[in-house]
Amino acid sequence: MSYEPEADVLRVELGKAPIDYASEMGNVVVHFSKKGIPVYVEILEAAGFLKRASTLLRAPRTKTLVAVS
User: Fold this and answer.
1) Alpha carbons 54 and 19: distance in angstroms, whole number
2) CA 3, CA 62: separation in Å to the nearest integer?
3) Which of 2, 31, 36, 51 is within CB 3.0–4.6 Å of 40 for a Cys-Cys bond?
4) 53-59 contacts, C-beta under 8 A, 24 or more apart
5) Confidence band of 54 (pLDDT split at 50, 70, 90)
6) Could you give the CA distance from residue 69 to residue 20 in angstroms, rounded to a whole number?
7) Distance between CA 45 and CA 27 in Å, rounded?
8) pTM
9) What is the distance between the alpha carbons of residues 60 and 69, in angstroms, rounded to a whole number?
10) What is the mean predicted confidence (pLDDT) over 3-18?
């Protein structure tokens, strides 16, 4: 994992397979192998993404009740 502050990009390497193609989904670019396995992820505008993610992680969790018979 690495972060480039000048470009505000967080990069995460998931595997060592050669990259065949990439798909951009909003501010996230996922690079795939020929077999369609994610190999590398880039999060653009990472500071904002991490700020939003940390807010979600601190949000109160709802409790789920399960009936026991």
Assistant:
1) 30
2) 33
3) 31
4) none
5) confident
6) 52
7) 7
8) 0.75
9) 28
10) 96
Tens digit of each residue's pLDDT (9 = 90 or more) over 29-47 = 999 999 999 999 999 999 9
Rounded distance between C-alpha atoms, residue 22 and residue 33, angstroms: 9
CA-CA-CA-CA dihedral for 55, 56, 57, 58, to nearest 10 = 50
The pair of three-digit structure tokens given for residue 21, joined into one six-digit string: 């193609």
Q: Which of 29, 32, 1, 37 is nearest to 19 (CA)?
A: 32
pLDDT digits (tens, 9 = 90+) for 19-28: 999 999 999 9
Which has the closest alpha carbon to 35: 18, 23, 52?
A: 18
| 17 residue type, one letter | A
